[in-house]
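Deliverable D4.2, example record:
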Amino acid sequence: KVAEAALTGESLPVHKYTEALSADTILADRSNMAYSSTLVTYGTAIGVVTAVGNDTEIGRINRMIASAVIIATPLTRQIARFSKLVLYVIVGLAAITFIAGTLQGEPAIYMFLAAVSVAVALIPEGLPAVMTITLAIGVSKMARRHAIIRKLPAVETLGSVTVICSDKTGTLTQNQMTVQEIYVDDRLFEVTGVGYVPKGEIRLEGAVVDAQSNTALRECLTAGLLCNEANLISTEGGWRIEGDPTEGALIPAAQKAGISRDALLQKLPRIDAIPFESHHMYMATLHHDVEGNRNVIYMKGSVERVLERCSGAMTATGDIGALDAEQHHRMADAMARKGLRILAFAYRAVEPGKKTVGHDDVSGGMTFLGLQAMIDPPREEAINAVKACHNAGIKVKMITGDHEVTALAIAHRIGIVQSGGDDRSQVLNGKAIAALSDEELTTHVQKVSVFARVAPEDKLRIVKALQANGESVAMTGDGVNDAPALKQANIGIAMGITGTDVAKETADMVLTDDNFATIEAAVEEGRGVFDNLTKFITWTLPTNFGQGMVIMVAVVLGTILPILPVQVLWINMTTAVLLGLMLAFEPKEPGIMNRSPRQAGKPILTGLLSVRIIIVGAILCAAAFALFHMALDAGESEASARTIAVNTITLGQLFYLFNCRSLHQSMFKVGLFSNRLIIVGVTLMVLVQIAFTYLPFMNTAFHSEPISLVEWGYCVGVGVFIYISVEIEKLVRNRFLQGIPFFRG
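Output generated by the structure prediction step:
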């Protein structure tokens, strides 16, 4: 047996044979080959080396990793486009300022300084710092939810994901084989409980059954417990299995029926055993029945091999009845169609003095006990997470090395496949993928939800095909075989517990709990991060636009500047740190996972937000300019008038900050005190503006002067006017204009 999970994704060790296979056999089904980086778990063999180094399967994967293209994140692409747009606007307005002033006869050097002032006023200096801090806060939040971010932009990338390609074993499932059905005496029993925890019940048609009252059921569970090489161990971290997971699942199943292994071994100590061998497909153990003064052989194996050795079947009362092999095969087929792994059990009483057991002893005359069917059950939280992803407009696809039937059954239980559990049109295997061209695969990946028995290059092709359709892809993986696809994906997600070092080094994010639900949580955090970045940009640009326009209008009209360059720097520095930065700590808005993912080419600022920025900036510009000249007309000094203009812009931004706590809803919908740092920032902002206005050394440094309470009232009035105007705009849009695409943005 060879464990090939790191290379093929197969969750259990696979048997190896020497028979020749077709040249087009997919990697996971090449049972006559042993590969570098895999681990022999049972048996011995002599092999012929067919490839070394880069010519091996692991070497081919290394070449694919090197050839995979690293995709720029949506945020970096959008910020790059946004920065170019802002650059062109700034250069254009600065040039207009210089030309307009020069044409009016102003000295060129003075106009150059004025143009520089306009540029300084328009540049959103706080954006890089706030973007980094917002992403870092997202990293911290995700770490608390078991997602470790290795590359900072990946925080936001999660928020724009449209497709999640997930591994099955351990991510969507428990990675703990669990017996779920037992078939004895023509009756199908249900076993409750999941994983290796020995807690649960055995039920028949919903009613709890006492296994001691049903001899066939008790003996079937006893056979699974005694004909077994695995051990169930309790640790501080929970229950775990030593040995084969399939055998391990039989132990808690018997314990759920109240059968103790230790007590059983005292009554039925093992004398000898026939170990499992792949060409026999069964295992048998010989036990001495202390109470009955006899010896008993218990046997487990494949349904075909066990049934062909049986001549009768045990009934619930312990009698030996006729064997209906055809019925048992039909039941096994029905279980297999549900993705269950099935083991058959039998027993035979032999003479008390028998000390050894051989293949001749089990070649016939066995009594059929029943079937136990098991599966690696889905995580309950994964079921909810998949549902949440679907509500958020995110498609979830399963990519696994496991068999098609098992993969489809799990996908149906989890909700990845919405139609019937046997809908084979929802599955594409590795052989079918290899036969498709890249163009054909691009069409198929949109319709198929489950990809089974896939090779490493298949995973890479699937990711590329999804990206060719314009999808933003998150890919999970734990093995070396996943690394090329992890690197190619928009965001690669490695498993922290079962993941190989290669997978972790290639990935952008590592899950410390190997749980799909953590991905859904990380997507939620990523959307919150992008929301907060958008809120900051929407908040900061009106200040820059308003300040720049104040200076530009003054130059064009040939009047003195309402705001000096040093005062522009003061506004930008204080408001960005004390006000704007607080938006980075804004909690996620309700219903964030009920929205569709962002479109890949959609700009950071929608048309509606751009209009809002221009309107608020225009209000700040007009108010600052009007109050500045009103103060001059009232006999105030230039320093006093400029102080009024600075406070007008600052307080306007302060009130507008509360509008930006939610870009589409009222501040009261997100909670007045849900972000207490906003209150702290506003308080500090008011204090520093008071210092700016009244402290002598600040007056000297920034050319400011004290102003009256009435003049403060004008400044506050502008802020209140901005706040009310934006809230009315939100109200009108939400109530009357939601049907128009422009206003939905």
